[in-house]
Specification:
By secondary structure, this protein is α/β, with parallel strands linked by helices. The protein contains 15 helices and twelve strands. About 45% of the residues lie in helices and about 15% in strands. The strands form two sheets. Strands 5-4-3-2-1-12 form a six-stranded mixed sheet. A six-stranded mixed sheet has the order 6-7-8-9-10-11, covered by helices on one side.
């Protein structure tokens, strides 16, 4: 009995160490560490920890691993809440741990499901395990407003050849591929290690290894073909000159009326560096330290600034509106202002940040939070993706050729948090956008990993829709990304910057921009069918169990 207890204790300790290893490897796969290749083996220890475990044991092991992993990825929550939200440090850590424990549940469910699938269909159930991971990522994208931060595929934002499959399958397709490789490696190494120790090996999992090698090869080949220009080569292309401004305004004084003139002077100075050849100037989210529509004096200053720049300016500013009972509310908006002061369009943020821009269930369950947490505004969601239009400046004609008037160009704007939602951004592309813009204020994150993590997600939005992206952030990272996810330029954080780039404009209409998350929902269907199979198989075996008991 003592030996049995000792063996069980050793097995548990081994599983916890392996689960902890995966929990440490996963955060290192993402920015700032940027060890993206580590993601391809990060789940191997977790799968070894699940060997011989029941579904319940697997769930707890996976939950531990996931909680450790998300604590490493989401540590910036403490900075945002304590430094800028004025939440006490102890409470900030407590809230972060609650959040990471919630996110860890998804890894726990994955682990339990992996054990169950293997039991349902020995040897071949593992083929569906990547579908389970993708299904859980899709649920995380939408459940309770959604928090698809650090989906596994984002770890590969620098592996341009690998991530081109996102134009069909979204970021979820890259997550699928990474999990498949992890599962295949875990099985292959489990087969090899007993062989090295002289034990009789289990059967080589050649089917899983072969399918993994085939899919990785096909994905790589597709990426190379796409980047070489073999696809979409017949689509007309043109370009537009875009400038982004990173003012680096300290969050502590951003809304202080005493700093308004200094802030506008900074925007004026940085915008002037872009030159007169710029077709569009982009300022960050909530760039104006006032409500643009309600401050005539400062409104005229912004118009004068656009006139000096001789280019339309896209800038963020709150918009004040009123309910029928005259209660005020805010919209987080992006205005497109022409050099002559005409308002060319406005986009109102559609997907708001829970507990940042609004309080969920405020009228019922969470009515008390507005008294406990500072800095939460009463924002309302906008009507949805809105396409803005501008006309570039005429280009000088080449010698011997006649000049032509430039045609209007359509683009979409995602504000801050919205850019992490693949389906939301792809609706801009589906509605005719020819390039994309995101404006944000990442000052809340401080010098944590969050600005880099946030920027990495924009790479995937470019690849999914094959549209160029311009990003303007108050404190960085600002920059440009081409239609295939290559980072053209990126600024350091907490620096004043103004830079210009020529962006490609076109309408490729990828499979993803037309049809959305078909692949992810296909994974959900596969998992649902397996669950039904498991349910009916268990139900069908009940009479035999009862008969055996009575005998």
């Amino acid at each position: 009995a003592f030996a049995k207890v000792r063996l069980m204790t050793h097995s548990l300790a081994r599983s916890l160490v392996l689960a902890g290893a995966s929990g440490l490897f996963l955060p290192l796969s993402f920015p700032k560490s940027d060890l993206g290749l580590l993601a391809w083996i990060a789940l191997v220890p977790l799968h070894w920890a699940l060997d011989g475990k029941s579904k319940t044991q697997a769930f707890w092991i996976g939950w531990l691993s996931g909680t450790i992993a998300f604590t490493g990825m989401m540590a910036w929550v403490v900075t945002a809440m304590n430094t800028y939200g004025k939440v006490p440090l102890v409470i900030s850590y407590g809230i972060m741990l609650l959040l990471t424990a919630y996110l860890g549940l998804y890894v726990g469910l994955y682990s339990a499901g992996a054990v169950w699938f293997r039991t349902l269909i020995p040897r071949y159930g593992l083929f569906a395990v990547p579908c389970l991971w993708v299904s859980l990522e899709l649920i995380r994208t939408y459940f309770l407003s959604g928090l698809p931060w650090c989906l596994l595929g984002y770890s590969q934002y620098r592996q341009i050849e690998v991530i081109q499959i996102a134009d069909h399958m979204g970021v979820y397709g890259v997550s699928f591929l990474i999990v498949l490789v992890n599962v295949a490696l875990a099985e292959l190494l489990s087969w090899l290690m007993p062989l090295c120790r002289g034990f009789r090996p289990a059967k080589l999992p050649w089917e899983l290894v072969a399918m993994t090698a085939l899919l990785v090869t096909l994905s790589w080949e597709y990426g190379l073909r796409t980047l070489s220009g073999a696809l979409f080569s017949d689509i007309p292309r043109s370009s537009i000159s875009v400038g982004v401004v990173q003012p680096n305004v300290d969050q502590a004084v951003k809304w202080d009326t005493a700093y308004r003139e200094e802030t506008l002077a900074r925007f004026d100075r940085l915008t002037g560096r872009l030159g007169r050849a710029t077709d569009l100037v982009i300022w960050p989210e909530a760039a104006t330290p006032f409500v643009f529509e309600r401050e005539p004096v400062y409104q005229l200053q912004v118009i004068a600034l656009a006139n000096r720049a001789q280019a339309p300016i896209l800038f963020g500013s709150p918009a004040l509106r009123f309910y029928p009972d005259r209660r005020p509310y805010l919209l987080n908006s992006a205005y497109l202002l022409s050099p002559d002061g005409q308002l060319l369009g406005r986009y109102d943020k559609h997907h708001l940040v829970p507990f940042g821009e609004y309080i969920p269930f405020k009228s019922s369950l969470l009515f008390f939070l507005d008294k406990l947490v500072e800095g939460i505004g009463d924002f309302e969601a906008g009507p949805g993706p809105t396409i803005l239009t501008l006309t570039p400046k005429p280009r000088a004609a080449a010698a011997g050729t006649a000049g032509s008037s430039p045609r209007p160009v359509k683009f979409g704007v995602a504000i801050c948090y919205e850019v992490i939602f693949p389906n939301l951004v792809r609706q801009f592309a589906a509605n005719g956008a020819e390039f994309l813009v995101t404006v944000t204020n990442d000052a809340w994150f401080g010098r944590s990993a969050a600005p880099s993590q946030h920027f990495a997600m924009v790479v995937f939005r470019s690849v999914e829709n094959h549209l160029a992206f311009a990003r303007a952030a108050n404190t960085g990272i600002s920059g440009f990304i081409d239609p295939f996810g290559r980072i053209v330029e990126a600024t350091p954080i907490f620096t004043e910057q103004a830079m210009r780039a020529t962006m490609q404009v076109w309408r490729p209409h990828t499979f993803y921009s037309r049809h959305g998350d078909v692949f992810a929902y296909g994974c959900v269907i596969i998992c649902a069918l397996l669950c039904l199979f498991g349910y009916f198989r268990t139900k069908g075996s009940e009479p035999d169990t009862v008969a055996a008991t009575s005998v």
